[in-house]
User: What shape does this take?
Amino acid sequence: MRRRALLAGVPMMLLADAALAAPAGLDFRVLRGGSAVGTHRVRFREEAGLLEAQSDVRIEVKLMGFTVFRYHHATAETWRGDRLVALTSRLEKNGTTTACEARAAGAALLLRGPEGEQRLPAEAAPLTWWRRATLRPGVPLFDPRKALVVAPELRISPAQGGTRVVLVGGEGADVLYDAAGTWIGFATTGEDGSAVRYERA
Assistant: This one.
């Protein structure tokens, strides 16, 4: 089951160049076919002009009492204003571990993963969903689970008094933010075709 719009990820209807103040923590239940299978939590800390975001996704699917799918994705991000300064990511999926790192380096962002190191534009950002300002045209995006550059089509529209962002292409995602830009909803499709959505805890 994939986290199409998960990781995340993962609150604010910010102006494109607005600096971030530490928002409140985020807690979601992960539902598969209507049944709870895990959690997605994001915690924030602001210090010395830096905003740190710690995301933790834990999913476990059982069948007849046996675990048939286990997923744990932990991501740590450090932002200075609108620039990602550093990121570490560790994904454990059914016994296989994948790691990713990113760090600002002059006019670039260096991204390292299973395929080696890539040099991205300085404004590149991860698909971790909580940061509304990331999901706008012109921002180079990457998937921190495997350090892969992605380029989904973004369809942005008003919804429920806030904003809905639908990512078309690749895994796809349907992400919802309230009027303040806080991340409040998420939906995607699992690897097995099941409906996956988030519910605020």
About this structure: Residues 91 and 97 are 5 Å apart (CA to CA). The chain has no helices and 16 strands. Residues 26-200 form one domain.
